[in-house]
Amino acid sequence: MRLPSRFATIAAIAVLALTSCGTGTPAQGGGITLTIAANSISGGKNSESADWIKQWVIPQFEKTHRNVKVLFQPSGVDDEQYKTKVALDLKAGTAADVIDLDGIWIGEFAQAGYIEPLADVGGATVDSWSGWSQIPQAVQGLGVFDGRKYGLPQGTDGRVLFYNKTLFAKAGLPETWNPDSWQDIIDAGTALKAAGVPTPIQINAGSAMGEATTMQGVLPLLAGAGAEIYAQDKWTGSGQALKDVLRFYQQIYGGSGLGDPELQQEAKGRDKSFARFADGKIAILAESDYFWRSVIEPGAGVAPMKDRDQAVGYTRIPARTPGAGIRGQDHVSMSGGAVRVLNPSSENPRLAWELLSFMHSAEATTSELAGRARVSSRTDVNDEVLAGDPMLSYIADEVLPVTAYRPGLAVYPRVSVLLQEATAAIVSGKSPDEAAAAYQRDLEDLAGAAHVSTS
Fold it and tell me: For 147, left (φ over 0), alpha (ψ -120 to 50), or beta?
């Protein structure tokens, strides 16, 4: 499949100042120099990550590798600027040995030939690394493209349904809620509406919420209907799975009063949904663990809930019906996150792998978290650092094993927009069949009919 790529434009740039220090090269005195590149910089963007690399990774690695000097190449720019710079450096063969990438870029960089599978670069010790056993198979998927491992996943997240226990009690619903199907969600919403809850259900929809519509709404639901947005070199078109998703949206926003159509069309709709949940006006909301950690966090959240730990429940997103999800699952999720890759042009690829795997060891991962409760890629680390946070432990133990990821292809962001537009059509009153047909036409125009599944 020939996909549109911004790298064609990158290749056409005749003159660009490449500021990288090069790949692993001899240092003064006959030693070896390795380099790490990340979009983080002390005192600026992702400052904590930059400080960790400089103050912990480098001295600790150099302590056990006396002949190696490790240099850090910081950046603190817009993600697209960083992406372009890394692509240019890789194309020119001057990139760092170990490179931070967003997981969503893996397929694009692999198809462009800028990165190669880890084992092809780092050698046989890659596959025998003991750390793989601590990274769940589903989490490894963040760094996988076409069945090959291109990167080691860093931290990740998971999507769940958050719900207000106080409102549930008002509606006669259980404090511990475990919906087994989409109908269970609709039934709960109906009971909440009858109990006078202003907005029973909030599933992000429409174009105004951007990628939050796709990641918090469409893609988990699509996975629950048994399909991924991209599989076997084809994009999922207007088949039964997508129509099931759009019908579910219609049940919520098509006049039932279970959801608020106007909120989905407001520029600040997602932020308002956060505030309304915190105020007890939304009962069920689909979000990532970011919502727990940073939005309704009692002390410093953007919409703090002082009684969060007592009033807020969380549960896995059910498949349409039991067993109807991808891989025959009863429950589903979507995850995102960053990865670290190896530069195929590294002059010391085996040593570069030693550095990369060291950065993903249990000791290094624990050090990077620095006491913060965040979901890492490693089960052993999560068992230790999340022991005091039941919600994040739930993500690590119950959600990550059933999660999935967006396809790391250049055209994906435009496919995502089409999915958002399809849900926007439902919110504005179109039927699922009409919205699906329009999506199919636009998707075929974008990717080519031969690369769109109609099943």
Answer: left
Confidence of residue 372 (pLDDT cuts 50, 70, 90): confident
pLDDT of residue 6 exceeding 80, the answer is no
Q: Where does the chain hold its CATH 3.40.190.10 domain(s)?
A: 7-157+337-402, 159-333+411-453
CATH topology for 159-333+411-453 is: D-Maltodextrin-Binding Protein; domain 2 (3.40.190)
Give the separation between CA 353 and CA 425, rounded to whole angstroms.
48
pTM for the full model? 0.86
Superfamily (CATH) of domain 7-157+337-402: Periplasmic binding protein-like II (3.40.190.10)
The C-alpha atoms of residue 200 and residue 226 are separated, in whole angstroms, by 26
Q: Is a pLDDT exceeding 90 seen at residue 9?
A: no
Q: Residue 35: beta bridge partners?
A: 71
Q: Are strands 234-236 and 452-453 parallel, antiparallel or unpaired?
A: parallel
d(CA 315, CA 323): 17
Residue 10 pLDDT greater than 70, yes or no: no
Q: Which of 220, 265, 229 is nearest to 439 (CA)?
A: 229
Instruction: Print the SS3 string covering 357-419.
Output: HHHCCHHHHHHHHCCCCCCCCCHHHHHHHCCCCHHHHHHHHHHHHHCCECCCCCCHHHHHHHH
Token output for 410: 């250049």
Q: Which residue in 99, 58, 428 sits closest to 253, CA to CA?
A: 428
The backbone region for 206, taken as left when phi is positive above 0, alpha when psi lies in -120 to 50, beta otherwise, is left
Q: What is the pLDDT of residues 108-157, one digit of tens each?
A: 999 999 999 999 999 999 999 999 999 988 899 999 998 999 999 998 99
406 phi/psi in degrees, rounded to 5: -70, 150
| DSSP secondary structure letters along 277-305 | HHTTSEEEEEEEHHIIIIIS-TTT-SS--
pLDDT digits (tens, 9 = 90+) for 231-271: 989 999 999 999 999 999 999 999 999 999 999 999 999 99
Which residue type is seen at 212? Answer: A
